[in-house]
Amino acid sequence: MSVRQSLLAILDQGPCYGYQLRAEFDRRTGSAWPLNVGQIYNTLERLERDGLVARGETDAQGHVYWAITESGSAEVSDWLASPVQRGAAVRDELAIKLALAATLPRAEIADVIRAQRESCLARLHDLQDPLDDPASPDTADGLAGALVRDALVSAVEADLRLLARAEERLARHPRHALRLELDRERPKRGRPARSAVV
Amino acid sequence: MSVRQSLLAILDQGPCYGYQLRAEFDRRTGSAWPLNVGQIYNTLERLERDGLVARGETDAQGHVYWAITESGSAEVSDWLASPVQRGAAVRDELAIKLALAATLPRAEIADVIRAQRESCLARLHDLQDPLDDPASPDTADGLAGALVRDALVSAVEADLRLLARAEERLARHPRHALRLELDRERPKRGRPARSAVV
DNA sequence: ACAGCCATGTAACTTGTTACATGATTTT
DNA sequence: AAAATCATGTAACAAGTTACATGGCTGT
Asked: Is residue B89's beta carbon less than 7 angstroms from any atom in nucleic acid strand D?
């Protein structure tokens, strides 16, 4: 929902045309996530279908302006007022992968962790590259960009910490523990063939 | 892709039937993300369409078994060998929201941060509830569950740290900076109406 | 003239997700 | 007998994403 909500939030500031929306999104998110132009028009039509925006006039240059509706404005307020829900519904890919790898025949998981750490370190290195942006953090542009970089760094650091914790856990447990009693009192009648069991 | 890949990885351990797959996914991910059964069957059909799994026999009880193909096995290997890509392509909802809120008329962003922090703290409290799971961390079940909990906690902690950094940045900058020169040398011809500008 | 950006749009597709229908078996 | 769980499936939809077609305008 981020793209959808973002476009809506931008339109809440005043009418825009499609191409402009892309530039605004790009600018306001520090150009961290390139957005295909086509998606703008798709999203606008879906927002229109849902009564959150309305097609406005076309100016002399042929720009098709879109304006937010009252419902749209209300949704923006809701969005800003309600926290981003993570963990509960949203699946964390790395978490799932680690957990799953832990239930798969051993040896794998150590490799998974190693590869992931390398990737994270490389990313961290990239993020700390000073070439990032010429915008100073004194403008809102720079501020938004700085916030985004903070977020990206923060996320990578969290991943690295998680990987460390995972390794600790693995080291603390005897390696045979992983294959121990995987099929306990599970489905009773639901596991006739033993094939699926680790 | 997490569900898709997870099911494939489980099937790589041996044939399963649909309902069983849900139980396995549930078990191997510490029951952190409930999975609608219907999605299993959808995903299986899509995996079959892509030649990654094949319908197997039906046993006496009527269970329809699915088996992984060679391509499927190869994809599992690929999955396990390649790190989860975050940040680059994947949009971070909270990051986007903060960055965007920073470019919106002031006052909002402080509220956003406050609301998000409350949500994170509440979640952290929930996660640290000891009622979580009765499974000991000595089995792979418990290990997987522990890894998932680690991941969830880690993510929330990262969010909290990010919120703190964001507040620091906001405090460090004069509040008028946010509205300063938002429309610099941007689209040249692309911003005729001033409406969209903050 | 030509390359490249600005600008709008369309079509197709992916994964995730839910709601529902259906029946068998098990538990209470 | 009724309620719950097991089990398979179908239909529809949401949001994201890409590739492509089509022009106009701009700079070299």
From this structure: yes
- Mutation target to probe the A interface, by most A beta carbons within 10 A, among B63, B66, B92, B197 is B92
Answer whether A123 sits within 8 Å of B191, measured CB to CB. no
What token pair was written down for A66? 């879109």
Tokens of residue B141, six digits: 């079940």
Q: Would you call A95 an interface residue with chain B, using a CB distance cutoff of 8 Å?
A: yes
Report the distance separating Cα B74 and Cα B76, nearest Å.
Answer: 5
Give the pair of three-digit tokens for residue A42: 């798709």
Distance from C-alpha of A142 to C-alpha of A135, rounded to nearest angstrom: 5
**pLDDT per residue over A70-112, tens digit each?**
999 999 999 999 999 887 778 899 999 999 999 998 668 999 9
Predicted local distance difference test score (pLDDT) of residue B24:
96
Residue A12 corresponds to which tokens in the numbers above? 């809440």
Residue B49 CA, nucleotide C10 C1', distance (Å): 26
Closest protein CA to C1' of nucleotide C20, residue = B38
- Render B90-157 in DSSP notation, one character per residue: S--HHHHHHHHHHHSSTTHHHHHHHHHHHHHHHHHHHHT-TTS--S-TTSHHHHHHHHHHHHHHHHHH
Question: In chain A, whose CA is at the least distance from the CA of B138?
Answer: A177
Note the strand D nucleotides within 7 A of protein beta carbons: 6-12, 15-20, 25-26
Tally the residues of chain A: 198
Q: From the CA of A94, how many Å to the C1' of D8?
A: 30
CB of A38 lies under 7 Å from some atom of strand D: yes
Q: What is the pLDDT of residue B33?
A: 94
What does the pLDDT look like over B123-168, one tens digit per residue?
999 898 765 555 555 565 678 899 999 999 999 999 999 999 999 9
Among B146, B141, B67, B3, smallest CA distance to A186 is for B141
Those residues with Cβ within 8 angstroms of residue B165's Cβ, 6 or more apart along the chain or in another chain: A150, A154
How many whole angstroms separate alpha carbon A116 and alpha carbon B70?
25
Find out whether B8 and B64 touch, Cβ atoms under 8 Å. Answer: no
DSSP state of B17: E
| Contact in structure between B186 and A23 (CB atoms under 8 Å) | yes
Q: Model's pTM, two decimal places?
A: 0.86
What pLDDT does B142 receive? Answer: 79
| DSSP structural state of residue A69 | -
pLDDT per position as a tens digit, B86-99: 877 788 999 999 99
